[in-house]
Amino acid sequence: MENQIKEKAKQHILIAAHRGTAGGNLPCNTLAAYEAALRQGADIVELDVSKSADGELFVFHPGMEPYHLRSPRYIKDMTAAEVEQLHFVNQDGVETTHKISRLNDALEFLKGRCVVNIDKFWTCMPEITQAVRQHGMQDQVIVKTAAEEKWFDMVEQIAPDFPYMPIVSESDRCCEMLLKRPIRYIGAEVLFSSPESPTAQPEYREQMHRNGLVLWGNAIVYYYKAILSAGHSDDESLYGDPNKGWGWLADSGFDIIQTDWVLAMRQYLECTKRYYR
Fold it and tell me: At the top level of CATH, which class does the domain 2-271 belong to?
């Protein structure tokens, strides 16, 4: 899958669906949201993992229980049996029929259909690694951690054969080191709050590409004060100037762009002849 990701990125920009495609009565991080994302043209589905009090893995963003479930309790404090009784709520806070999926069920659902980006990999790395191996999907995932040596050591020890990206913020101090490690280092998720940030510079992106690495950029906005790509965002694209949002990310050479609006971004990239390379 590592080579497949790189080869596909040479052909067209890869669209990553942030927690699937959600909205209306369709909650994020559900099998239905992943299905919708794939139907809209996503190449990658991003999902989050939480662990119950008795050690079972579920697809859910840790800490979002009050908002997505209207629950005063957190998955980490519940048994798996209790988690399986919960229902997601829709965008109006009304209960839906959608329940929280086990990670095993989500992996089986997505097996052979797309690349799966498992976020929060560092939170329960051994357990996630075991689940991915059980499904024979180690070539179908992208795993990420913060760009810290302690996580590099863990990846090298536990999952050295998984396609791996560090999350690099503002400046990249780990590329040269990771190229020398026995890790399946395929590129980096790049965060930059300002156009002046080192990771926002063309020279950085060109160097990464010369090293045969792919670059993951973010158009998503999950909090307006947490600027991920210097304002080149879904928000700018949807109700501002899309050439300064999705267009800028595409023109700047990002190989993967994560969005909450898969269909709109795919249509924009195709209409402006930016999708194919």
Answer: alpha beta
